[in-house]
Amino acid sequence: MLKKKVGLEGVRIYAYHGYYPEEQVVGTEYLVDVETISDVRNDGNDLLEDTVNYEVLMDIVCNEMAEKRKLIETVALSILERIKLEFADVEEIKVSIRKLRLPMKAELRNSVVEFHYKK
Fold this sequence. Notes:
Layout: E1 3-15, H1 21-26, E2 28-39, H2 54-66, H3 72-86, E3 92-99, E4 111-118
Antiparallel strand pairs: 1-2, 2-3, 3-4
Helix pairs in contact: 2-3
């Protein structure tokens, strides 16, 4: 069976997640990656309903990132669960969130959380 990957890479979004109250006030930038793997149902018919609509993926990411949460793990899991509900045919989902500009004592590129679901 032929498989396809549809996703979003490097969605840069400003959000207000964090364990510390000031993080939920000041906010910071995040990078979100979403990847789906599913069977190819499109036999050349060119129909949007036969694929994973990346506009819908973007709506899911933006809506979940807009809700303040203490842990980016919670956000990533919520994104994954919403994708599962929206696209029942998807066999695998990867969601990663990178938090940029962390309030740390040392310089670092980002923190990262990733979930990988397989049916």
